[in-house]
Design a protein that fits this description.
about 130 residues; alpha+beta; 3 helices; 3 strands; about 30% helix; about 35% strand; elongated
Length: about 130
C-alpha cells in the first residue's frame, strides 16, 4: 500500500533546494538571487559570502543545500555544478497596524518569500 512514486520533474543532471517563508520581501530577495544566476557554484558561494546584504546568508545556505542534494542524492560532480535557476516567489504577508494621530491607523506589511535554487552539472566539453 501507499502512493506510487512520483515522476522526477528535474533532469538527471539537476538537483534542487527550496526554502519557504523567508522573512524578506521578494523584491529584495530577487536582487540577491539575480547575483548568482548562471554562475559556477564556487563563484556564487564567494559572491554570497562577501555580499553586504542581510539575506545573503540564507541564500548561501540554500545553495549549499542544493549542492549537497546533488552530491548525496544524485551523485553529481560538485566541481562541475552551476546555478541553472534561482527564482523567488511571494509567500504570505503578515499585516500589522500602528496607531497614528487623530484616530487613524498606519498599515504595516511584513512580507515573506519562497526561494528555489536549481543546480545543474555542466556537460563535458572535449
Amino acid at each position: 500500500m501507499g502512493k506510487a512514486a512520483r515522476e522526477r520533474t528535474l533532469a538527471d543532471t539537476e538537483a534542487r533546494a527550496v526554502v519557504n517563508a523567508i522573512r524578506v520581501s521578494p523584491q529584495k530577495l530577487n536582487l540577491v538571487a539575480a547575483m548568482i544566476r548562471g554562475k559556477a557554484v564556487g563563484a556564487a558561494l564567494n559572491d554570497l559570502t562577501f555580499s553586504r546584504r542581510r539575506i545573503s546568508d540564507t541564500v548561501k545556505k540554500a545553495l549549499e543545500s542544493a549542492v549537497a542534494n546533488a552530491e548525496n542524492n544524485h551523485q553529481l560532480d560538485v566541481d562541475r555544478l552551476y546555478v541553472k535557476e534561482a527564482y523567488v516567489g511571494k509567500a504570505f504577508v503578515m499585516k500589522r497596524f500602528r496607531p497614528r494621530a487623530r484616530g487613524r491607523v498606519g498599515k504595516i506589511q511584513k512580507p515573506f518569500s519562497n526561494l528555489t535554487i536549481v543546480v545543474r552539472e555542466r556537460e563535458e566539453t572535449e
